[in-house]
Amino acid sequence: MGKRRQFGYVRKLPSGRFHASFVPPGGGARQNAPHTFRTKTDANRWLTLVEADVSRGTWLDDRAAAETFGNYARAILRDSPKIGVRWRETCERNLRLHLAPLVDVPLRELTASRVREWHAATLRGTGGRTSISQSYRFLRMVMNTAVREGIIARNPCQIPGAGTVRAVERPVATPAQVVALVDAINPRYRTAVLIAAWCGLRRGEIAGLRVSDVDLTEHTITVRKARVEPLHAPAGRAFDKDPKSEAGKRTISIPPHVVPLVRLHLDEYAGKDRLFVSRDGTPLRGNTLYQAFVRARKQVGLDGLTFHDLRHTGQTLAAQTGATLADLMKRLGHSSMAAARRYLHAVDGRDREIAKALSELAAHGDVARLPRHITMRS
């Protein structure tokens, strides 16, 4: 009598062919070979190969690989604690729109060529480049998860740069234009504009500020939470959450010229708990602030400026004062240099200053004679 196999099971079928099956690593339902075998030796050989893959850690779960991309992607959106509400909504929308051709495709059939064909066809369509890039990043993230979970061997998303959108150069408001916006906007929101422009806070961070986050003795604002307003949730569903990273929790010095208006806001417009509230005392909604900003920018002729551009403005001007990349990362709440580097742009007149300084250096031949307010960066 032959030695019984320790891995897998082989049995003879009434047809005379042989059937092989095994219990996958970690347990679960027994899995069958994809076909029957002419001889018992062939069946045993197949099980031996599967066992070798398991021992090397290269075995792939064929049953899991038969799951469709759509079902697997929705499960990830449902279960991942790292996916925020707004990004989840964006991915769900892109599943319905740009990723629809891939939703019913089994994971094992999502090859690199199939992804390439999908991406090329999508680019030929009418969709926006930003949402297509977001769709590709989500697809890549889902397939990376499938690789980690042993469902597929390699991520089929191999298109260089497909997940990157070249950012359009955003406008930088001048200090005078910021003043004009402050004068034009509803007085209740003047301090919000100033905090965005000179402290670099995002709209959600501004809406999430508490009165206790402002220290007028030390002239600082501390970001502890951000206000999140799901796009498709019913009214009142907004909530506060921690920033995306620990770097987002930060204390920022308020420029001295902003402090008096912050103090005035605390006296006249702040709520008992929240720094910014609506007229009825409820937490300020981001859309309310946005609409007030839109009216103000139209009044002063800055239609191309977004509220987020105020954050861009303040940090770009901070860079021109000599702030280092590390300084900007701290004020912005960024955990990577790449994110903060986007704010290091030249403003009008800066190049002329540098050119003038170079001429002075040529004339005197002494680096020490350079104006102190010019900061050279590699």
Description of the molecule:
This protein has 378 residues and is mainly alpha-helical. The protein is built from 15 helices and 8 strands. It has helices at residues 40-56, 62-65, 69-79, 85-96, 112-124, 129-148, 175-184, 190-199, 203-207, 259-268, 286-299, 307-320, 325-332, 337-341, 350-364; strands at residues 9-12, 18-22, 31-32, 214-215, 220-223, 226-228, 239-241, 250-253. The strands form 3 sheets. Strands 1-2-3 form a 3-stranded antiparallel beta sheet, covered by helices on one side. A 3-stranded antiparallel beta sheet has the order 4-5-8, with no helix packed on it. Strand 2 and strand 3 form a beta hairpin. The termini are far apart.
The helix content is 40-55%
Number of strands: 8
Structural class: mainly alpha
Q: Termini distance?
A: 77 Å
Largest sheet: 3 strands, antiparallel
The average pLDDT is: 83
> Which spans have pLDDT < 50 for at least 5 consecutive residues?
369-378
Gyration radius, in Å: 29 Å
Lateral arrangement of strands in the main beta sheet: 1-2-3
Q: Please state roughly what percent of the residues sit in beta strands, choosing from under 5%, 5-15%, 15-25%, 25-35%, 35-45% or over 45%.
A: 5-15%
What global shape is seen?
elongated
Question: What count of helical segments does DSSP give?
Answer: 15
